[in-house]
Amino acid sequence: MDLNFKKLKELFRDKSRDNLYQNLLNIGINCELSPRGVNEEKLFNPWYRRSLGVIKINSNYSIKYINIIKQNGGKNNPPRWWYYFAIPDLQIIPIDKSIEIKSNRKKSAPLVGRVKSIEWEHNSNSKELSEIFTNNQDINSLSMELGNIKVQSLHDNFSGFSIELEFALRKKKLSINHWESLNKISKLCINNYL
User: Domains of the chain: which residue ranges?
Assistant: First the structure.
């Protein structure tokens, strides 16, 4: 009976982390599934969400790990997934110099229309970086194809930056071009604070 319960549990387990891991392997990224319970699972994981686990990136990229967070659906709302691409950095960024940039996808018609343009919203410390994003076709294409992007500096327990994507990987897959664009964002963030 215990064996049947394990099979049933495995059948209903959320496999978003496994799917992203396989997707990354398929595009040639050297990565591995981190054991459950590692400290990185706490990145952007408030009490009402849960981490599905971390994927550690072993390749020579500035993105070092990805934390997948899920918020279960309720009676009136569907489940949601967030993918946090973490860019650790040794330099400590003071909170008063923190950056936050969000893409805003403008559609031809609300909800169902095609994305026609991307606008980047920023805090007072991120204006220059926001302009670089606005003028970069690869970064704008990334947001048009995958969804809204949020880039922010990290403080306290985590030092560096994070790129947040909210989308269901069941519907969308990362391509090598998407991966390179994510790493372009990470390099721009790091270089912005040198």
Answer: 2-192
CB atoms near residue 115 (< 10 Å): 14
Q: Are 55 and 65 in contact (CB under 8 A)?
A: yes
Q: Are strands 50-57 and 160-165 parallel, antiparallel or unpaired?
A: unpaired
Give phi and psi for 94, each to the nearest 5.
Answer: -60, 150
Instruction: Determine phi and psi for 109, rounding to 5 degrees.
Output: -145, 140
Helix axes 176-192, 137-146, angle to 10 degrees: 120
Specify the pTM: 0.87
How many Å is the maximal CA-CA distance in the chain?
A: 60
Cα separation, 167 vs 82, in Å, equals: 7
Contacts of 151 (CB under 8 A, 6+ apart): 99, 100, 101, 102, 129, 161, 162, 163, 164, 185, 189
Question: First vs last Cα of the chain: how many Å apart?
Answer: 58
pLDDT digits (tens, 9 = 90+) for 105-153: 887 777 677 778 888 999 988 899 999 999 999 999 998 888 889 999 9
- Residue 152 makes CB contacts below 8 A (sequence gap 6+) with 98, 99, 100, 101, 161, 162, 164
- In whole angstroms, give the CA distance from residue 176 to residue 60: 14
Q: How far apart are CA 81 and CA 96, in angstroms?
A: 29
